[in-house]
Amino acid sequence: MKKFITENYSFTITVIDHAKDGKPLHCRNGHEVGDTYTCEYGCPMPTNGCGDFCSKTMMNLYRLKEVVYTNGDLRLLGFPNNHDVEFSCPDGAVWFRMQIHDLAEIRPLNAEHLPQYADIIRRSFATVAKDFGWTRENCPGHTNFITDERLGSKIKDGYLSFGYFVGDTIFGFASLTDTRDGVYEMNDVSILLEWRHYGYGKRLLDFCKEKVKELGGNKITIGIVEENTVLKDWYAANGFIHTGTKQFEHLPFTVGYMEWSTT
Questions:
Q1: Are 101 and 12 in contact (CB under 8 A)?
Q2: What pLDDT score does 21 carry?
Q3: What local confidence, expressed as pLDDT, does residue 92 receive?
Q4: Same domain, 249 and 201
């Protein structure tokens, strides 16, 4: 068996009680309080010398894991939060606690990472180029075709770059450039297609907002494809205000400008 995907979540499952209606019950599978298991997408594996996980309970566990993997909200199912979930086996005889660990994290990048994040940027923006029918011939200035050299020219004082990682795998990118007077320009916000719809784009955006505040800044500015209404609406839903447009002769689209303020 060979895994073809890098998982973005892991789970710790611990037996916390075995009772029904307040009366102790014996578990047919032999689970005892304290038995602990870990897993990613697959079946839970014991970590403290306990026996195999209950196959019948996998029905309940799988349903909960699928909610997590599809970026659902466990609170809508009556659970108090999205991090620690307590559930029972189908017979109600054993209670488990499932702890959810998001393996993705945002890390600062440097010039040595450029070939990695340049590839992420191009692959991410390729979906936009495809949607609008842009090629190297009719739109060479689009981010989908940006070169390592052009990205390298951005690396200077005041340029901050960040990658979204799971382990050593990078799947997202964003940069901030200090343009002085508390204003930071945000560029190349990228999430690979197969990692979208997990909420990582918003988390990356929120990270940049907090980073600007941390640095003493008060505003983020961005430039987008004005005709990309889906993206424009997404930024608007995340607090950005449209401030104007500009047409460039070498681009077959209108550049739209938006900004977000800390106040």
A1: yes
A2: 63
A3: 85
A4: yes
